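hey so u asked for the seq, here:
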Amino acid sequence: MFVATIPNVTVTLGRDASLPCIVKDIGDYQVTWMHLNRQMLLTIDQRTITLIPRFSVTQDDPTTWTLHIRDVEPTDTGYYVCQVNMIPVINQVGFVQVVVPPQFVDEESSQSHVSVQESHDVRLVCRAKGIPKPLIRWTRENGLLFTSSRGGQGMQQVESEELVLKSVTREDMGAYLCIASNKVPPSISKRIVLDVHFHPVITAPNQLVGAPLDTSVTLECQVAAFPNAVHFWRFNDQLLINSSRQETQEIRNGYTTHMKLSLKNLKPKDFGTYVCAAKNSLGEGDSNVRLYEIEVNRRHEEKQEQKGNSNSVMRAEQPNTDRIMDVWSKPGDFRAGLDSDSPSYTLEEASSAEGGGEFAGSLGGGGGSLGRTGFGPVSSSSTISQGRGLLWCGLWLSCGVASIWLLGSPHLQPGILLGALVVTLLVEHSTPFLDLRSALAHT
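ran it, structure tokens below
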């Protein structure tokens, strides 16, 4: 008779399973094992009857016969009968369940990369097999929500072998994970990348950029395109390449590209409209960025420079502070209070200040006329010229009187001529400080 029941066993594919059959007081009767589903005799007592070498039997003690199944396969699942061939026959049944982890059926699933045009529909398929049948669920690799025909909008995961996306946009682009599980470890996943193709779309964050001369500036554009586009900058219908004064840069992140154009040491010819453009197999696009000159700082610098130049000119043109007084002026004379170096001083002003004196007026008028037609240009100071004229007139008369006295002649004409000769020689050897030509012109 049987001492204990045969347990039901669940075993994973490829592992071993054992079924014990415990009986006592059987005498000379034999214990056999059979696979009921296959209707196949496996063992009799300690002998293996089946030709499948994975099956065997052992007798651990006088009451226990154990059936061993090595490296189980799915076909090993079923009912196993332990039978004692007495009359009537007695038997017990145990069940072996072979479980299989999930496995993808690649020939029935979507490829690892799927491409679709923007605004079109797309269907992603993921099929798996296993025992028990695996459950399929979809999720996005980056954790974003998606819209499907089965799950509706805003779903984070969808349980289905097929995922249908309606009117896809570039936001649907990315990796989708198909996860299959049947509570038999391990669960598996399949990564399917969805590529959404669309023509380049370009935006300029700042379409108007200002900068002063001799500074640096960076122009920027954002490009969205797939497949990846060729990016370039244009200025005055000319393609821009890297040089010592300009440098282009591209920073890619998924289907977006950040375009940069750095300009150094700006010159007047650098200001104008720059075009950032991109082109792929589906089309092309561009956007404009206008660079203008900021003149505020430049005008300020020009004003500072002009101010500095004017200060230097004013310092260079400051009048001489040394005042040369008319040696012939008397105390209280109007000429003693006038500065002959003043640029605004004229003989006409001196005449009006005197009240119309005949000597000053006639001397100023005659001196000016003779100064422009005599030996040379008149002095810048009319007062000095007038004083010098009186000085040399007196010298001339003194020389004439001295000549008469030395000659002892009662006649004046020889003495005057001799005095004129002496004065002429002195004029020819006069110093720049005493403008003798101008003085003689006045006389």
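DSSP finds six helices and 27 strands in the chain. The helical segments are 296-316, 347-354, 358-373, 382-407, 412-428, 436-442.
lmk if thats what u needed
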